[in-house]
Write a structure and sequence with these properties.
It is built from nine helices and nine strands. The chain has helices at about 5-25, 75-95, 180-195, 240-245, 270-275, 280-285, 325-330, 370-380, 410-415; strands at about 65-70, 130-135, 170-180, 200-210, 260-270, 340, 345-350, 355-365, 390-400. It is globular and about 80 Å long. Keywords: Heme, Iron, Lyase, Metal-binding, Oxidoreductase, Peroxidase, Signal.
């Protein structure tokens, strides 16, 4: 078993004490099935330690900085050493502290500071950092080939995919969510700094305006097409459903992943200008919901159960056979569900006066082969929304369980 050196253990321990104190002050325990307290959620820290990683069922924050790294070191020991340093820094930053022991202003003035400093004076802002390991990490470099879970099978090519390899995949991902974009960017910047020479950034994505609710305490947000998104999303209060659909069980075949979850990302560009010229009635038929309330067509309230058997004039379905809500509904996929926590993005324009904008889709699940893959296969084949969207990047990662205490580190269950 790899030992954590004294300096890093000190960093972890200090952050661990902070985490316990902050958790007590906020009276907020984001474990399975527990709703957040009514404290100032936009400033308060989220506990770093627990059975599951924070940033999955944590009530979705408003801002995202997602990054995918390629591992450039060839040494297993160096990779583990970096993961330990990352863990110490993450434990501190999620509690509103500097990334390193000496911070942005301490230490030797002749040496680079331990923290880049742009988050000085800012609160924790609900920062969560969630790590995942991509299929490419399980090659011959680090002796992990035999530890690749069967559920981490490469995603198939779906009809209509226009994936760009340079913004897809990666060995390791880190998802930073916070209520302040500067806090999220600061966290990723400092992890990249710590990892210099061992990892390099493959691609990254900024996101704003969460497009899903992960708690019943949150209102359903809207995507850039103006529709409420993720009405039927899994919620942190759904304890039994989370055990069945979200968390990997010891019986699933990869012991090191027990308590973890599998992450799928898809960058979905929207043809915004074309969509904006579509009639309201067409937009609502495509989604199968009305645009104002978000109710399924034929219903009255957002959370009304869709009636897929309902017929309108001439016997045509009220909710069309190719409507998004019908094709994505759990009843169409044997009850399979996803926990979505995606974000809107706008990456400027494409040089032709068109917005480069859309949805950065993020979904967690127990087994992508049984959840995301069949759902996306049907959507890619039949969804009428496909006329207005294009999938341009894709990622798949195994997110291990949470950290037990200050002596633990990201990836310990994989590498030991």
């Amino acid at each position: 078993m790899t030992q954590i050196n004294r300096r890093r253990l000190f960093g972890l321990g200090a952050a661990g004490v902070a985490a316990v104190g902050a958790g007590a002050l906020a009276t907020q325990t984001l474990t399975e099935g527990t709703a957040p307290a009514a404290a100032d959620a936009t400033a308060a820290p989220v506990p770093f330690y627990g059975e599951h990683q924070a940033g999955i069922v944590t009530p979705a924050q408003d801002r995202l900085h997602f990054v995918s790294f390629d591992v450039v070191t060839k040494e297993r020991a160096e990779l583990i050493d970096m993961l330990q340093e990352w863990t110490a820094a993450a434990a501190r930053m999620t509690q509103g502290k500097d990334a390193g022991t000496f911070g942005a202003l301490g230490g030797s003035p002749e040496a680079p500071p331990d923290d880049t400093g742009e988050a000085l004076g800012l609160p924790a802002s609900g920062l969560t950092l969630t790590i995942g390991f991509g299929p490419s990490l399980f090659d011959d470099r680090f002796g992990l080939k035999s530890r690749r879970p069967a559920a981490l099978a490469d995603l198939p090519k779906f009809p209509g995919d226009d994936l760009r390899p340079e913004i897809s995949g990666g060995d390791i991902c880190v998802q930073a969510c916070a209520h302040d974009p500067q806090v999220a960017v600061h966290a990723i910047r400092n992890l990249a700094r710590i990892g210099f020479g061992k990892v390099s950034v493959r691609w990254s994505q900024l996101g704003f305006g969460r497009t899903s609710s992960t708690s019943r305490a949150q209102a359903t947000p809207r995507n850039l097409m103006g529709f409420k998104d993720g009405t039927n999303n899994l919620k942190l209060e759904d304890a039994a459903m989370l055990r069945d659909q979200l968390w990997v069980a010891p019986s699933d075949g990869a012991a090191w992943m027990a308590g973890g979850s599998y992450l799928v990302t898809r960058k979905i560009r929207m043809n915004i200008e074309t969509w904006d010229r579509a009639p309201l009635s067409e937009q609502e038929q495509i989604f199968g919901r009305n645009k104002g309330e978000g109710a399924p067509l034929g219903g009255h309230k957002e959370f009304d159960e869709p009636d897929f058997a309902a017929r309108g004039a001439g016997g045509t379905p009220v909710i069309a056979d190719d409507a998004h809500v019908r094709l994505a509904h759990p009843s169409t996929h044997g009850g399979a569900r996803l926990l979505r926590r995606g974000y809107n993005y706008v990456d400027g324009s494409d040089g032709l006066g068109r917005l480069d904008a859309g949805l950065f889709f993020i979904a967690y699940q127990r087994d992508p082969r049984k959840q995301f893959v069949p759902i996306q296969r049907m959507l890619a084949r039949s969804d009428s929304l496909n006329e207005y969207i294009k999938h341009i990047s894709s990622g798949l990662f195994a997110c291990p369980p949470g950290l037990r205490d200050a002596g633990d580190y990201w990836g310990r269950t994989l590498f030991t």
